[in-house]
């Protein structure tokens, strides 16, 4: 195989970890590869809150451009960062088997403040979804913006006078930086496709499509398809307070989804299950149920605020 597959990736340690997973899967099949680090817009501006930037695909756009211009052959993304509508002529080549999906609270000293109703804790996160869910449970807490890659955010947490910060478990565990001072937030529903890694390529690149096909994980592909369909039907975008999680057990798909107002004061949720063979459309059906319940008001509120 003389062709070298150029794999585009963001420059952070976590992004490089993800790209190396795809690289290793390709080289194990005998393909020749090369990693091409590319800086994304989301990595350049580390101050402005994501909800203020308001650009879908802020972490993927630069890689999409490199792919469409022929600078790279494959782009590797955290699937939760990918807009529900891919750019024209870009398609999914493979979705890797999913890693941890939950969110973690990394705390400074202890978690006693979680059980102290009068204590005003200071919690950091750049995620609109995490902020909304946290305020729903702890409406009196103060939330602070926290941008940057995983290591930068951990350093900022250590330097600031905050009680804790919220991270994706996958991000910390994949690069072995999860602190002992962390707990899983079982009650926090994750972002659609959280914990999944996707490789995309040009739709006419049969060579790369064939190369990636063997490591496409069917269960992860179905679960994330349902979650992203739910997101797309509601309004779409990784900077919205929409959560969804689907998993498969004994040939049955279990799904939970919700939308929360940005300040946490109102939310609508739903759950359902289906046989794997009948799972098509359940994400859309779940979203339509949420909209009918009153979720459309939250969607309108978010759109009007932008």
Account of the protein in words:
This protein has 306 residues and is an alpha/beta fold. The protein folds into three domains: 4-96 and 196-216, Periplasmic binding protein-like II (D-Maltodextrin-Binding Protein, domain 2), CATH 3.40.190; 103-184, Periplasmic binding protein-like II (D-Maltodextrin-Binding Protein, domain 2); 232-305, Porphobilinogen deaminase, C-terminal domain (Double Stranded RNA Binding Domain), CATH 3.30.160. The protein has ten helices and 13 strands. Strands 2-1-3-10-4 form a five-stranded mixed sheet, sandwiched between helices. Strands 7-6-8-5-9 form a five-stranded mixed sheet, with helices on both faces. The chain has a three-stranded antiparallel sheet with strand order 11-12-13. Mean pLDDT is 92; it is low at 42-55. Monomer. Belongs to the HMBS family. Tetrapolymerization of the monopyrrole PBG into the hydroxymethylbilane pre-uroporphyrinogen in several discrete steps.
């Amino acid at each position: 195989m003389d062709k070298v597959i150029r794999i585009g990736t963001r420059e952070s340690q976590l992004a490089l970890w993800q790209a190396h997973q795809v690289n290793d899967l390709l080289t194990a099949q005998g393909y020749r590869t090369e990693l091409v680090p590319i800086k994304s817009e989301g990595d350049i501006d580390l101050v402005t809150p994501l909800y203020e930037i308001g650009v879908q695909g802020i972490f993927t756009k630069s890689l999409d451009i490199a792919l469409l211009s022929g600078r790279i052959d494959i782009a590797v993304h955290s699937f939760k960062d990918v807009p529900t509508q891919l750019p024209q002529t870009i398609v999914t080549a493979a979705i890797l088997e999913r890693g941890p999906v939950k969110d973690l609270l990394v705390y400074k000293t202890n978690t006693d403040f979680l059980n102290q109703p009068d204590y005003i804790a200071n919690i950091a996160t750049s995620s609109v979804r995490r902020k909304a869910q946290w305020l729903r449970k702890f409406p009196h807490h103060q939330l602070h913006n926290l941008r940057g890659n995983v290591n930068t955010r951990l350093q900022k947490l250590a330097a600031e006078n905050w009680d804790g910060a919220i991270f994706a478990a996958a991000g910390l565990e994949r690069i072995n930086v999860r602190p002992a001072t962390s707990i899983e937030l079982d009650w926090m529903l994750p972002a659609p496709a959280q914990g999944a890694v996707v490789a995309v390529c040009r739709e006419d690149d049969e060579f790369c499509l064939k190369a990636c096909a063997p490591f496409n994980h069917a269960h992860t592909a179905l679960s994330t398809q349902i979650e992203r369909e739910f997101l797309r039907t509601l309004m779409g975008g990784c900077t919205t307070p929409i959560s969804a999680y689907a998993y498969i057990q004994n040939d049955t798909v279990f799904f939970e989804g919700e939308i929360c107002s940005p300040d946490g004061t109102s939310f609508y949720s739903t759950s359902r299950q289906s046989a794997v063979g009948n799972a098509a459309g359940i994400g859309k059906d779940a979203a339509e149920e949420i909209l009918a319940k009153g979720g459309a008001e939250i969607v309108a509120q978010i759109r009007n605020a932008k």
